[in-house]
Amino acid sequence: MAAKNTGGSTAVQPNPESAAGEPLAPPPPAAPAVATETTVSFRPGLEGVPATQSAICDIDGNRGILTYRGYPVDQLARQSSFLETAYLLIWGELPTIFQLRDFEHEVKMHRRVSFRIRDMMKCFPASGHPMDALQASAASLGLFYSRRALNDPQYIVAAVVRLIAKIPTMVAAFQLIRKGQDPIQPRDDLTYAENFLYMLTEQEPDRTAARILDACLILHAEHSLNASTFSARVTASTLTDPYAVVASAVGTLAGPLHGGANEDVLDMLEEIGTIDQVEPWLDRAIAAKQKIMGFGHREYRVKDPRAVILQGLAEELFTRFGTDPMYDLARALEAAAAGRLGAKGIYPNVDFYSGLVYRKLGIPRDLFTPIFAIARTAGWLAHWREQLGANRIFRPSQIYTGYPERTWLPLEQRPLPT
Ligand code: SDX
After folding, report:
1. Is the Cβ atom of 351 under 6 angstroms away from ligand 1?
2. Could you tell me if 355 and 281 lie in one domain?
3. CA nearest 74: which of 179, 242, 219?
């Protein structure tokens, strides 16, 4: 149907192929002018740009050293507990025996989650990803503790305890719910890691397995201004509630370039299949400029120190529970990648071996990143408190690359794509 020519400008001629009444596919936007000048301050991904000052964690990317409040992470992984490490990160000092016992007790007393949240989780599709279930349930905590008294120290302490205590319960609850079962209540006679394994499997946890999981939680607890922690700080800077802060960070961690890589590493190793396929697979991946999951890091130019420790934990599990052929495959891939990517400073990161530990612990693959989130809740809360201590809302600038000012045109005067 040709539109009547209204004179003046070219009448709009609808696309004859389009059926009457169907919305026309919008023409592709004209490519905006690309910024020609690059200013010194613009760095894609804020690489190397300090966005905050922090006393929580330090990374020496060239020497592969990671410290939490000055303590090397390998000492903490060997000698501390996750709750003691969480206390250190959040409050700044190792707790006294009384402070630790009190913190452990408070966390135990707050592990339970309202039946309303459990019932809400029963409405989630069983096929949903556990990270999406965790983000939704973490955010829902804000409905129950909605008083935002950020200037009340007791409110801060209560929020820290609730999130550290309830995140594992919610991860375990969705695991049982998606299997069609009712979630089980936490047990106060079990440690933090033992109780998580118990709620996840409904079985008495193996003490060695629980200790190794606890060490994994320590290794994943904090890592300076990674994407999800930056997300937490940006959200915290608006003075919203801590439950929204953690929910925001969970959503960020879920991405495959960040916390989601641990799942993808096992998929990648399965795709490679056998040791004799490692080099051909790697050469094809590099030629296709494919990112090798579990490798590379914005900060490290050497092997991630956490990967070194996780490898040791994996080997301890293999000694106790039997080996995993996938570990030999992983080590072959690491050796082959060293020759091809090492010169670019691309080595295994925390996600490369962590999945093999969780796999040997019998944890489903899509729960690897939620376990990362359980641990990183300590780091996010430490940064939340630190942000509140010297807050200014994050609002960076941009380099505008869009159109210069222009005038709106009525429909009949808009030129049709040629
Ligand atoms: C975590 O920040 C943190 O601290 C995160 C974390 C934490 O504890 O919070 O440590 C946890 O997120 C670990 C990372 C998990 N993600 C992965 O394993 C996904 C694979 N890794 C890459 O996507 C990458 O290494 C990143 C995202 C981790 C870091 O990316 P950068 O710093 O933005 O580097 P880049 O993408 O700009 O790459 C720089 C060069 C490129 O080559 P060139 O184009 O310059 O020739 O290095 C190459 C990249 O192609 N490169 C890789 C690679 N990572 C970088 N090439 C092949 N495989 C890779 N994994």
Report:
1. yes
2. yes
3. 219
Residue nearest to atom 4 of ligand 1 (CA): 226
Same domain, 237 and 380: yes
Which protein residue's CA is at the shortest distance from atom 1 of ligand 1? 258
pLDDT one-digit tens code per residue, 302-352 = 999 999 999 999 999 999 999 999 999 999 999 999 999 999 999 999 999
- Contacts with 295 (C-beta within 8 Å, 6 or more apart), sequence order: 337, 341, 346, 347, 348, 349, 352
> Is the residue at 9 inside a domain?
no
Q: What φ, ψ does residue 101 adopt, rounded to 5°? A: -60, -40
Query: First and final CA of the chain: distance in angstroms?
Result: 19
Token pair for 90 = 């959040």
Domain interval for residue 121: 88-255+365-389
Are 131 and 220 in a shared domain?
A: yes
Same domain, 93 and 239: yes
Ligand 1 center–CA 256 separation, angstroms: 10
Pocket of ligand 1 contains residue 260 by CB under 6 Å: no
Ligand 1 geometric centre to CA of 274 (Å): 25
Q: What is the CATH number of the domain that holds 280?
A: 1.10.230.10
Residues 394-411 pLDDT 10s: 999 999 999 999 999 999
